[in-house]
Specification:
The protein is α+β, with helices and mostly antiparallel strands and 297 residues long. The protein contains 9 helices and 12 strands. Strands 3, 4, 7, 8, 9, 11 and 12 form a 7-stranded mixed β-sheet that branches. It has a 5-stranded mixed β-sheet with strand order 2-1-10-5-6. The longest helix has 17 residues. 38% of the residues are buried. The structure holds the ligand Nc1nc2c(c(=O)[nH]1)N[C@H]1C(S)=C(S)[C@@H](COP(=O)(O)O)O[C@H]1N2 and molybdenum atom.
């Protein structure tokens, strides 16, 4: 197995991951050895703890503080859940979530996750490749992008009352990005149902892009022929582009993107260099051949 994609055979149960993490941490603390000599995967893809992944979140509908989604999102009812699929598709409709995704093959994927705010985690997602959903509903000729929309439920999402972002939260991918096998819809973490603060019942995960592309609690998927509305791009076009590929060479106007704070990695010093395409360049760089990524940021 090469590269950062893992199959079920590569996956270690949460408890073993955590034990190994403690062992690695102890090595780092007790000796000057640090992570030297460990297999590359142990250095690069040591998952964060459940606690870290589910209490340090961005989900602005529930508040802009990192702890607010975990505090507030429990009130959201995620079952039953309806997803509207429309636009240039053979089988549009308002689908009950189980009818839309219940028969799609799921697996665990351990991905690096890099927020535009220059912090990162490693998260073991459970989910399915987005392309399997798109193939099921039938993408028509002429579709060039996929647009996504998050639920907007004012009764449980306190921040919808304020114009922090252009609600409802929306994002989009070019069709080839959406069909790429690394692009998944996540419905779980560590083999458990995905918590509301992480985007229950179904959220996008695009590991080579900044975290804001990975839209949560999706209620609409539209196949369209023009570049879709993207919430962060509309909120700050000079700061957040449509592509949002992780690129250490293009700084955010207000901070550097050359390195990142590793959440939970205190004993290792807690910072690492940011990798082009978040470490997934071998898999995805070809999608952007011929594009100027400092213009198409
Ligand atoms: N609907 C919605 N989706 C969202 C966001 C949000 O505020 N609302 N924040 C984005 C940002 S900026 C990041 S970094 C990730 C965070 O995902 P996590 O909390 O599961 O780590 O979700 C993304 N998806
Ligand atoms: Mo983010």
């Amino acid at each position: 197995m090469r590269g950062p994609r893992l199959t079920r055979d590569d996956v270690t149960p949460e408890r073993l991951w955590l034990n190994r993490r403690q062992i690695i941490a102890a090595m780092g603390a007790g000796t000057a050895l640090g992570t030297a000599g460990l297999p590359a995967r142990a250095q690069a893809l040591e998952p964060n703890t459940w606690e870290e992944i589910t209490t340090y979140n961005n989900y602005y509908e529930f508040g802009t503080g990192k702890d607010e989604p975990a505090e507030n999102a429990g009130a959201m009812q995620t079952s039953p859940w309806t997803v509207t699929v429309n636009g240039l598709v053979d089988r549009p409709g308002e689908y009950a979530l189980e009818d839309l995704i219940g028969d799609l093959p799921t697996e665990e994927r351990i991905y690096r996750f890099r927020c535009v705010e220059a912090w990162s985690m490693v998260i073991p997602w459970n989910g399915f490749e987005l392309r399997t959903l798109l193939e099921k509903v039938g993408v028509q000729d002429g579709a060039r992008y996929v647009a996504f929309e998050t639920a907007a439920i004012p009764e449980v999402m306190p921040a919808l009352a304020y114009p922090i972002l252009d609600w409802p939260y929306r994002e989009g991918l070019r069709l080839d990005e959406a069909m790429h096998p690394l692009t998944i819809m996540a419905t779980g973490i560590y083999g458990k149902p995905i918590p509301n603060q992480n985007g229950a019942p179904m959220r996008l995960v695009v590991p080579w892009k900044y975290g804001f592309k990975s839209i949560k609690s999706i209620v609409r998927i539209s196949l369209v022929d023009e570049e879709p509305h993207a919430t962060w791009k509309v909120s700050g076009p000079s700061e957040y582009g449509f592509y949002a590929n992780v690129n250490p060479n293009v700084d955010h106007p207000r901070w550097s993107q050359a390195s990142e704070r590793v959440i939970g990695a205190g004993l290792f010093g807690g910072r690492q260099d940011t990798l082009m395409f978040n470490g997934y360049a071998d898999e995805v760089a070809h999608l952007y051949e011929g594009m100027d990524l400092s213009v198409n940021y």
